[in-house]
Amino acid sequence: MANVLVIDDEAEVLTATRLVLEREGHQVALATDGRAGMAALDASCIEVLILDIFMPGMDGFELLREVHRRRPELPVIVISGASIFSASDQSPDFLAMAVKLGAICGIRKPFTPRELIAAVNQGLGGTATRRRRGKE
After folding, report:
1. Which of 7, 46, 106, 117 is the most exposed place for a label (fewest CB within 10 A)?
2. What is the pLDDT of residues 62-105, one digit of tens each?
3. Taking the CB of residue 65, how many other CB atoms lie within 10 A of it?
4. Full-model pTM
5. Nearest to 111 by CA among 78, 84, 86
6. How many domains does the chain have?
7. Residue 91: which CATH number?
């Protein structure tokens, strides 16, 4: 299966995500902030990155830009349950904003195991496609 890095500042999200992905046969590395996540990304052969948008220090948007600068082929899945504004129609869609910046998809917290697995499979499918195109 795949090497997946999950970066989130919530311990419960890290634990639940790791359990779901390991049950699917993936190797999972965890980081609690952007700087630790970048170090893990640089030190490992990560095939899919799952990234929370709102974290202290380096936020997910900044991290997404840096990841794409260093590893543009890496599929990134963004997750978020936070909304800075009210739940009205005036609230920005942060997940959609992250997709416009290059994430392959966004998942709203709390997400189901099925949603998580589908997103990772989508990322792995995209990686295989990009690798084939790179060899042509």
Report:
1. 117
2. 999 999 999 999 999 999 986 544 455 556 789 999 999 999 99
3. 12
4. 0.86
5. 78
6. 1
7. 3.40.50.2300
